[in-house]
């Protein structure tokens, strides 16, 4: 539908840092200088020379000459170089092989690099060898690379201009490249447009001269309405990742070509309102509040990823009303919380923290008074979900008797005993650990009344959500000795960043372990979450699947193949599916696959159809009454 063949247009594409992610001579240096004692220093020099040449600071011929001198390269190094470059082809070129082969007659690779490595790389993606214009190495009798073919215009300044002039191409010329020498073709008047390619490097001097900036080949193809692998260039889709999510998540989005912004801390409501306007994918952890006010300004937002378990910080109802799918990571950090809880239970019942603090002050206080084993003691779990149940199993392995209370009827694991009421659990337990979710109605679930029901000298843990415990009541219970030790990881108010002071009445109390909401903060958990949540978000963006969403009708869709997928999100009112299908019938469109799932609030209809259909179909679908969001994928 969006394809257009530009019969008379030639695409002139640069190689280094455009077709590939890297500068090939830098890579050759890494290979040829392996084992050289000044390798790093020489490589740095080569990089500087490359950059100076690309940004037009020194002449091209000078840059080639200086680099070849430093390289000490040999013919035998070339196979390894080619192997490396094969893995370094720019992602958007890899994705758009179809464009490269379809337009092979009109695609020219013009580079001041060298044919010896360029030809094998570009021909592997369908470029014609006769359309590759580049330098060639000169070898000495022993196979050392000593120079380049001086007759070739591409080894001289303005060489690309000379070459294009000599080619006498009849038609429009669009140049795609990252370097100043690519822009020079446009400057000379020989090219109609110059696209500064920034997927791998950004050169301000080049960008300022460009007719258009292309963060990926998809953007170039989209701009020219050419056939492409992405219906909408991902470089135009902004991803905002807050609260220091694991770098693996950033990489996953970047390698798909998204425009990613990362911030270490959380943002407050007003700051987020400012940022959210042009954001399509938002990633947060537990601190960022995605309120209805924020969502009012989130006109482009398609999905939110909570890089944690809890989603109480997100206004899920408003997200659903606005057609924004929300995902979380329900299991990835549960083990980490369980291990911390077990560790704290033992530390608290042995009074280790006050003892350790005294030792640091030089006080040796050896005594068994008020120190106990956990074996045979009663552990009461409030909330028997993913964390509560795992803790139940591990605690039993330590010989503890487990009691639990959950508002939902849950299967007891091992020998754990179900309590009928919270009060019953509070009265029986030597240790109480909270593992409920953070729903609003759980606010102050544990307050003065509940502490009064607990055994004298109970050990109390909250690693779930801060608002579940009335802090003032906990402080009183500690001061009166009702609570002999407490482990608190979560607080009603938590600092937004590591630079903000932690202010709380629990500070300074004896035998109280305070931790900065790190129950789930282990390398393992964060890496797992960093893989899991982007996986869900990308499945939704790329394929429409909502499996695992916490607020959307869940569908696991087949991969899209040879068809276009139309995603229609609407308020769940009668008759929408009929209206959608009436439009397909009116336009004689054959449906290749259709899926419908609803929740109380919304309906989600996914329809796969053949590629040939008119724009009116899309317009009519978008305009059905009660439509919340419409998306097209191919
Ligand atoms: N400190 C940290 O870094 C972390 C904290 N968490 C928090 O831990 C909590 C538990 O997580 P999961 O076990 O994965 O959640 P989950 O959703 O699997 O389990 C929560 C359980 O609590 C029950 N529940 C809710 N309200 C209750 C109430 N008033 N009384 C009794 N039971 C109630 C639910 O029925 C459910 O079975 C959540 O609040 C989560 O946000 C999770 C991971 C890390
Ligand atoms: O690691 C975080 O930021 C939050 C962990 C948490 O509380 C959760 O997963 O619910």
Polypeptide structure, described:
- The protein has 634 residues and is α/β, with parallel strands linked by helices.
- The protein has 25 helices and 24 strands.
- The strands form 5 sheets. A 7-stranded parallel beta sheet has the order 16-15-14-17-18-19-20, sandwiched between helices. A 6-stranded parallel beta sheet has the order 3-2-1-6-7-8, with helices on both faces.
- Helix 2 packs antiparallel against helix 3, helix 2 packs across helix 5 and helix 9 crosses helix 10.
- The longest helix is centred in the C-terminal third of the chain and has 21 residues.
- The N terminus is likely disordered.
- Bound molecules: 1,4-dihydronicotinamide adenine dinucleotide and 2-oxoglutaric acid.
Question: Could you write a compact summary of the structure shown?
Answer:
With 634 residues, the protein is an alpha/beta fold.
Structure characteristics:
binds 1,4-dihydronicotinamide adenine dinucleotide, binds 2-oxoglutaric acid, Rossmann fold, 19% strand, alpha/beta, 4 domains, globular, 7-stranded parallel sheet, (S)-2-hydroxyglutarate dehydrogenase activity, oxidoreductase, 634 residues, ACT_dom, disordered N terminus
